[in-house]
Amino acid sequence: MASEHDEGGSGRAAAPQDGPAAAAGAPDPKTAAAIAAAEAAGPKNGESVRVDSWIWAVRLIKTRSLGATACRGGHVRVNGERVKPAHSLRVGDEVRLRQEGRERIVVVKRLIRKRVGAPVAVQCYVDNSPPPPPREAVAPAGIRDRGAGRPTKRDRREMDRLRGLQGLSSSRRDAGTRP
Q1: Are 115 and 54 found together in one domain?
Q2: Of the candidates 96, 118, 132, 106, which has an alpha carbon nearest to the alpha carbon of residue 34?
Q3: 144 in helix, strand or coil?
Q4: Which structural domain, as residue segments, surrounds residue 159?
Q5: pLDDT, tens digit, for every residue of 59-106?
Q6: How many domains does the chain have?
Q7: Radius of gyration, alpha carbons of the chain
Q8: Residue 157 DSSP code
Q9: Quick check: is 63 in a domain?
C-alpha cells in the first residue's frame, strides 16, 4: 500500500527521475505547483516584503511575532545593519538571524509573503550559515537522579551555569528591586 509521501503514488520505491526535467534540476510537480502559488501570492513589481514577515514565511522563525521581537532585540541584521520589523527586503539582501545560540546567514533569492512548506522555503534563499555544532559538543543540561528530590539553590545555579544561563538568575533577582 502506497503512502501519501511516496513519489508518484505507486507502491514501488522512489527512483531517480529520467528525462530533461531531472537533468535541469527541476523540482517535482507538487513542489513546482507550490512555488507557483507562492509567487502568485508574493509581492507585485514595486512592492516590498517586511523582514519579519519574510523570515517567518521561509521558516527561519516559528511565528511572525517572534520575528518582530527578534528584529526589535537586534537579532536580525540585513546587509550588516540592525533593522526594525518593517524594514523592506530586496532580492540579493544578506539576512543574519541569531537564535538559540546559532547564527543563520541567508541571501534572499525570492520574496514571498505567505508561509510555505519547507521544500519551497529552501528555494527562496541561499543558506550560507556555518554548520550547527554536533550534539555531542552541547553539554548535557543537568541530569538528576530519580528520587533525588527538589534541587537546592546551589544545584539550580550549577544547572543554570551548565546551560549557559548565568545572567538570567541574577536579572530575575534584581527585577523586583530596581526602580
Answers
A1: yes
A2: 118
A3: coil
A4: 139-174
A5: 999 999 999 999 999 999 999 999 999 999 998 999 999 988 889 999
A6: 2
A7: 22
A8: H
A9: yes
